[in-house]
Amino acid sequence: MCATCGCGNVAEHEHAPLTETVSLEQKVLAKNDHLAQHNREWLRERGILALNMTSSPGAGKTTLLERTIRELPETPIAVIEGDQETELDTERIAATGARAVQVNTGSGCHLDAEMTHRALNALDPAPGTVLFVENVGNLVCPALFDLGEHRKVVMISVCEGTDKPLKYPHMFAAAGLVLVNKIDLLPYVDFDLAACTEYARAVNPGVDILPLSVTTGEGLDHWYEWLGEQRRTVSASLEGVIDPA
């Protein structure tokens, strides 16, 4: 018997499928991209540099932000902290004197544009602020979700594998900057900086790569220079919107 209509002759009947396959991922990402564009316009109108900070857990994002805030006291900085649970990283950022808001995703493995929109409303960063969005520690899902940021910054550490860019190509392809942290440990770990750089540029030709150590401070001057360049780019864009002449 035909399972679709109950007739007795399966061979003589062809039945059109009763369901249609829809790509849920495409629909979710389309909605997210729409909201991300709204966030991007909101940030641009205020001259806010927004950086989506991504990494695997333990690479050193929060420690980098703590040191950056303390060593750039003249730069207005605010932080959106994304974690599955706890407010531990927000408490660390608040201890530096910077304003921060926590977004807990529960079982979610990334921030999205709607979460970022709500956080922006709660944080209400002043015009000209540098906004760091510290994403959930994960090198997979955050690559797919635009938050409306100016750039994605990917941080890895030398305690991870040299082949990280090859294993997680979507994340590294989306990066505007790759930070390689904990280079003070290079003598003690099996990590090939030159090979990692080659792999990163294989998936993202021309991407900036900055080796550094948040612990010792080595390379942080280049990080601060890069931040300054990005701020000037945003400021120039804002001036063009306000004063076309």
Q: How would you summarize the topology of this molecule?
A:
Blueprint: H1 24-45, E1 49-55, H2 61-71, E2 77-83, H3 88-94, E3 99-104, H4 113-123, E4 130-134, E5 151-157, H5 164-167, H6 169-174, E6 177-181, H7 193-203, E7 208-211, H8 220-242
Helix pairs in contact: 1-4
Shape: globular
Strand order in the largest sheet: 3-2-4-1-5-6-7
* Relative strand content: 15-25%
The H/E string reads HEHEHEHEEHHEHEH
Walk me through the structure.
It is a single chain. The chain has helices at residues 24-45, 61-71, 88-94, 113-123, 164-167, 169-174, 193-203, 220-242; strands at residues 49-55, 77-83, 99-104, 130-134, 151-157, 177-181, 208-211. The protein is of the alpha/beta class. Strands 3-2-4-1-5-6-7 form a 7-stranded parallel sheet, sandwiched between helices. The chain starts with 23 loop residues before the first helix and ends with a helix. Mean pLDDT is 90; it is low at 1-5 and 241-245.
